[in-house]
Amino acid sequence: MTAQTIKMYSEKEYLELEREADYKSEYYRGEIFAMAGAGHNHNRIVENLSIEIGTFLKGKTCRTFSRDMRLHIPVNGLYTYPDLLVICGQNQFLDDKDDTIVNPTAIFEVLSPSTSGYDRGAKFHFYRSIETLKDFVMIDSLAVAAEVYSKAPNGMWQLMSEAYDLDGAIEIPSLGLSLAMKDIFAQTNNLKSIN
Fold it and tell me: For the Putative restriction endonuclease domain, which residue ranges apply (predicted)?
């Protein structure tokens, strides 16, 4: 039995392929990983977030980008597509193609069974190296649960806000925004209770 060789790609090769691809892929240390599709609750939550946050930010200097905006983290080389990100101030792009952001203020990930461990672990670790990032929000797609981690002035990350029922809310400090759980989870199906 022979071992299969994994094809390695440069960042330039990845970007060339990705800009022509019909589907999205992440890139890390020479490897390309196809991203899985998302289910009903996942998509509904992302849309709800986009509506709520976009409405709140209207007329302000911050703006949202949904899961089709690529994010690059130069410190560790990851290219990925957060479910939603917010940028305050000027957009900073990787290059003149204006399709890869490098300066998010807040990142929102909706957790699915296949991505929860990665989003909570390695991906959150990668995100913490982004100098401009102030808040990281994780929202469960199978249960009414949300957590907000914020960067303290000393650079340490801490749990700042959490909610586990539809009567609760989470606070996003960098945006001065409170999000009601009933709005985040509107029109979702078959949610479990964590309590």
Answer: 13-179
Phi, psi of 6 (to 5 degrees): -90, 125
Sheet holding 78-80, edge to edge: 31-34, 25-28, 78-80, 70-73, 100-101
Q: Which residues pair with 149 in a beta bridge?
A: 136, 159
State both tokens at 101. 């952001």
Instruction: Please state, in angstroms and rounded to a whole number, the distance separating the CA atoms of residues 59 and 42.
Output: 28
Q: CA 137, 143, 147 angle in degrees (round to 5)?
A: 20
Q: pTM of the full predicted structure? A: 0.93
DSSP assignments along 78-134, one per residue: EEE--SEEEEESS--BSSTT--EE---SEEEEEE-TTTHHHIIIIIHHHHTT-TT--
Q: Is the pLDDT of residue 60 over 90?
A: yes
Q: What is the pLDDT of residue 1?
A: 60
What does the alpha-carbon distance between residue 173 and residue 178 come to, in Å, rounded to a whole number? 9
